[in-house]
Amino acid sequence: MEAVIKIIEENIPQLKSEHELDKLKGLKLVELWLVRNPLLLCARSFPQLLKLDGNDLPPHIGFDVETPTTLPPCKGSCFGSDDAKVYIQRFLQQYYSVYDSGDRQSLLGAYHDDALLSLTTPYNVQNPSRSGLREYFKDSRNLKRTKDSTMRFHLLKHKRLNVVALLNELPKTQHDITSFTVDVNAYTNTLLSFTVGGVFKEVVVDDKSKESTRAFSRVFITVPAVNSGLCIINDQLFIRMATTEQISRAFVAPAPTPSSSPVPTLTAPQQEMLSTFSLKSGMKLEWSLKCLQDNEWDLNKAAQIFTQLKTAGKIPDVAFLK
């Protein structure tokens, strides 16, 4: 039976809370009058409601579920194929080993000459300068904040020199690789687009700074590189405050010591050789580095020794990217 109920201020002036209407939820209420009554936000409590105070309501969008429903758990990363997974995992390990090294200038080799980069942070309408992300605010291209088309163009970094220049200005970081989740957006022979999200912390560099954990989401659009790796043509970086849950789960595994990072002490040709060797061998950067160093940076000799050791089963599984 469909019901029409009128609640007039003069009759029930004390109606202040939506919970006071709970006794009516069993009715198939299609029309409700709250004339001159302060409670007007009750329509969501009655999904079959068609009229409020004589006015037609917009169609209700929802699911007709009688009992509470638990959403399925998150499945983590979605690579789409094993090939894409191998490319992306190698890329992320190599990219963030450089990004977190303290010298991001070496990232020039990861970007296309005509690459684009945009940085975005959430926009705090009440007080933008106190959103907790002050270091990023001046470069944020949040379209809710930036209305001027000229400024929007200016904040979009064009060319790889300008891209890396901006990255060098951002706070020093350490990313928690174990927190990363990846979703592949598109994968063809000529293009690989994927989104990676996770957490990182800003590294303390002086007495004025403090360690802060942030969350990020990043969309990389890449094309095949000359060295069989990936070359970034578009980079969209979104940085936000980490949730309490993300902070509690971050950096559970021990962080690598500075001396274990191979990137900072290498020349540009050595970094390129390391990237190439890691990609072709399938080994992690630290194992690839050791092999190259043991063979005096002779790529052909290192490859020959690697093949011999692998054939003999003398390289442990832990040396390889999974």
Can you give a write-up of this model?
A hairpin with a 2-residue loop joins strand 3 (51-52) and strand 4 (55-56). With 322 residues, the chain is of the alpha/beta class. Strands 5, 6, 7, 8, 9, 10 and 11 form a seven-stranded mixed β-sheet that branches. Strands 1-2-3-4 form a four-stranded mixed β-sheet, with no helix packed on it. The longest helix is centred in the first third of the chain and has 18 residues, at 82-99. The protein is built from eight helices and eleven strands. 25% of the residues lie in helices and 23% in strands. The N and C termini lie far apart (61 Å).
List the helices and strands and how they pair.
Layout: E1 2-6, E2 28-33, E3 51-52, E4 55-56, H1 82-99, E5 111-120, H2 134-137, H3 149-155, E6 157-158, H4 160-169, E7 173-175, E8 181-187, E9 192-202, E10 212-224, E11 230-241, H5 244-249, H6 268-281, H7 285-294, H8 299-311
Parallel strand pairs: 1-2, 2-3, 5-11
Antiparallel strand pairs: 3-4, 5-6, 7-9, 8-9, 9-10, 10-11
